[in-house]
Q: What sequence folds into this?
């Protein structure tokens, strides 16, 4: 379809049932919707790439969270990179690629606010990854929350994921020793050869996480960037240094629990180590996003920051691509190509 | 005994056995030791007041902590206020009262380093409480870790203790709404009438902590100063506000556990609330102690900062006074008068 050819129908994935535990494909429903005529100031865009991310599990849960949940029957939320195919807004022309929080659908109409025109000199898909939400998450969660110093040891869980693979590289740029935890030998291979992790281990084939961390972090752990939570985090607590900083980015091991998982109480150790644990959301840093993207773009151009995209083809595979995140299928940023 | 009369023997409490669970009096042994002749530069002091504090439980545990443990046969560590009875140090004269980390013994010889001469215009016992270690703990743990803003809600566990009773008052001075948690109606009475807590509840007679916190904190919780840990802290996590700050000062509910207590994993909530949990030790703030004591002394003189001492009489009662802390016997700062 050329940029100017108008589609007749939009396809969307709506939330059909609130998942209990691990989401199923049948929790989502593919529906069709008409595409309205544009009013002045509006643009019609067609998705090129849509993002699937672990945080979306929180949006389809009934639990209180930082954003309102997706209601049953509503289109799933999420970020995308789309191409303008019709425009009644002078700021956007057909053919432009934009970053847009459009949700799981093939087409969207926008009034132009919160649309960011993309620089076509870099692959536009990076706006969903290294130069988008997950890259910014790595950047601010590491630099602002952990504030790592040269020579410090930074441990990252989910180290082969969209965020973790970037965290390790930024930590290296800042002069740290980096130790990654991931679930697969292929992931360990990639993060140690390509992402510059100094050491890493596959938690799926490691019996004693604490002993392994002690071996790989002979000087203790100064910073921990946590995407996973659960027993991995418990093990990190056995090797913390005084004044260590822990950035809680995600807790993917917990997202599909049907009741809160119990674990050893960890706050006493925070006194022993005078340590800090801080949760954060990238959305709190949007006023500084442009500056961060500029710096990371330079690192990408200089070859200091590598990234990998895990592309799933076809809009109809959105639910499957999303669910696969919880099986650890992806290496790098998982994106659905539409 | 006059300040200049030289004693012949020193009495000390040595650690006899490493306690399992709640310490017993028989874990300590009263022993006698000779008192050496002074060398040049030294002073001999006699204890006037000795401190018992919950942190001492950590010192007699075999667990890794922030300081080396007291070994079996060693004199128990701890702070004291003592009077100089002999001096070969020009900076100290017989009769002077000093603040000294002398441990559980009646006499000590010091080379003068780490001795702080006390201002006799305020009761010298305050050097163990409001104008000493526990007061400084309240000051820095609240102001530095939580950084409370006027109008914010500050919740304090262990609110009738040596630290918690001061935390609430400093929070009031800073314009906050204060909610205390303590274990006894007499404690609740004292902190609400004397320490200015806006609201408080007795956790021993409250079935649903979360519901009570919701009732007493209609605007949610911005700061939590935690001396206790365990289920009280779990309940606080149900009422946190975005960007809330939690200062971990103590975890007295956990100190006598013989194995780690299990509780719901809380780190996911830190993402939802973009909240911070930070452990601290007052010893990290010693470079700023003089400034804090000056400010708190002024508050005491102005009647803005009230304190209560829970005096136990007699050196031989040190172990009993210490163990009573874990039964919540004390209101305010427990001190043993020698």
A:
């Amino acid at each position: 379809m050329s940029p100017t050819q108008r589609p007749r129908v939009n396809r969307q994935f709506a939330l059909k049932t609130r998942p209990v535990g691990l989401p199923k494909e049948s929790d989502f429903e593919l529906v069709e919707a008409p595409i309205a005529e544009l009013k002045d100031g509006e643009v019609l865009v067609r998705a090129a790439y849509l993002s699937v991310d672990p945080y979306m599990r929180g949006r389809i849960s009934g639990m209180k969270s930082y954003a309102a949940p997706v209601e049953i029957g509503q289109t799933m939320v999420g970020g995308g990179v789309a191409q303008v195919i019709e425009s009644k807004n002078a700021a956007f022309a057909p053919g432009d690629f934009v970053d847009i929080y459009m949700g799981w659908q093939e087409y969207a109409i926008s009034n132009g606010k919160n649309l960011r025109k993309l620089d076509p000199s870099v692959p536009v898909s990076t706006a969903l990854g290294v130069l988008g939400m997950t890259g910014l998450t790595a950047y601010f969660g590491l630099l602002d929350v952990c504030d790592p110093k040269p020579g410090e040891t930074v441990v990252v869980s989910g180290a082969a994921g969209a965020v973790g693979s970037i965290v390790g590289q930024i930590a290296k740029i800042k002069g740290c020793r980096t130790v990654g935890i991931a679930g697969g030998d292929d992931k360990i291979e990639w993060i140690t050869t390509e992402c510059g992790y100094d050491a890493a281990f596959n938690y799926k084939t490691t019996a004693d996480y604490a002993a392994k961390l002690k071996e790989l972090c002979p000087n203790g752990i100064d910073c921990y960037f946590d995407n996973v939570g659960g027993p991995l985090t418990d093990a990190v607590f056995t090797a913390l240094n005084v004044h260590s900083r822990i950035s809680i980015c995600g807790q993917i091991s917990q997202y599909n629990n049907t009741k809160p998982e119990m674990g050893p109480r960890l706050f006493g150790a925070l006194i022993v180590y005078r340590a800090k644990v801080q949760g954060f959301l990238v959305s709190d840093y949007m006023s500084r996003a442009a500056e961060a993207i500029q710096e990371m773009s330079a690192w990408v151009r200089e070859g200091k920051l590598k990234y990998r995209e895990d592309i799933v083809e076809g809009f109809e595979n959105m639910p499957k691509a999303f669910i696969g995140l919880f099986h650890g299928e992806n290496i790098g940023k998982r994106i659905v190509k539409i």
User: Anything to note?
Assistant: Chain B has a mean pLDDT of 95. The interface with chain A takes residues 64-66, 226, 229-230, 233, 242, 248-251, 254, 260-265, 267-281, 284 of chain B (CB under 8 Å).
